[in-house]
Task: structure prediction
Amino acid sequence: MVNLTASPRIKRIQRTALVLLVVSGVVNYIDRAALAVGNPLIRQDLGLSVADMGLLLSAFLWAYAFAQLPAGALVDRIGTRLMLPLSLAIWSIAQLFGGFVSSFGQMFGARMVLGLGEAPQFPSCARVVRDWFNVARRGTATGLWN
Result:
């Protein structure tokens, strides 16, 4: 039988962690979708073709996909307390830079850095749940942040 009781301190840490993971996840999804929402205006402003926009949209995905494995290893090596804030800073700077670009190349770079910065989000969330939640509660916690 699994003991599901946790001290009030642990419960407070768990609730705080879940709230922060959900908030960072929401920001993560908003950041990655921003280009799609602003697509017509960005195309016009930068004089880009539909094919150029396709490359910009895929730049994030390729960087994100290729960075998943090393990001997970970094989370294991340096921990979530350092990796998640570092990740948030990187993707925030990339998104900020995306607002000041004036060419396809600059936007492509910003989207690549955004993908690299967002890659540690899910491995970090999984690690926080593993570290702070009882085995019997991990599914619920994962469902909430995901």
Summary: The first helix runs from residue 8 to 37. The mean pLDDT is 92.
